[in-house]
Amino acid sequence: QVQLVESGGGLVQAGGSLRLSCAVSGSAFSITYMGWHRQVPGKQRELVAGITSGGTTNYADSVKGRFTISRDNAKNTVYLQMNGLKPEDTAVYYCKAVFVLIPTKWGQGAQVTVSS
Predict the structure, then answer these.
(1) Is the dihedral of CA 10, 14, 18, 20 positive or negative?
(2) 64: Cβ–Cβ under 8 A, 6 or more apart, which residues?
């Protein structure tokens, strides 16, 4: 069974940093794309950052210059380094993995809370 296990969320003061990790296990199929999305109550889930297997990245305008996504293909793990955190970054962050031949999978979510 494919699982995405997230870690690294927590509470931080504005201006601080956190690093999220998401490890994928249980799949023999290649992962073409991995990303991070976030959601606050009452709003739609939104893309934060994504990265292809070749290393091409994309970011939401709101996090450009502050967040960095990276991945270790050998470990099927994606990371999100978040610097200069703002209270508006407070959300549940979800990892997403797009596979060849099987449906897209999501992690369970990691709470990130930024206090002012």
Answers:
(1) positive
(2) none
- Alpha-carbon separation of residue 106 from 11, 36, 83, 85 (angstroms): 22, 9, 24, 24
SS3 label, residue 24 = strand
Q: In the block, which residue shows the tokens 């031949």?
A: 101
Per-residue pLDDT of the chain (116 residues; tens, 9 = 90+): 899 999 999 999 999 999 999 999 987 778 899 999 999 999 999 999 999 999 999 999 999 999 999 999 889 999 999 999 999 999 999 999 999 888 999 999 999 999 99
CA distances from 14 to 2, 9, 42, 61, 73 (A): 35, 14, 23, 19, 32
CA distances in angstroms from 50 to 12, 13, 37, 89, 94, listed in the order given: 23, 25, 9, 17, 12
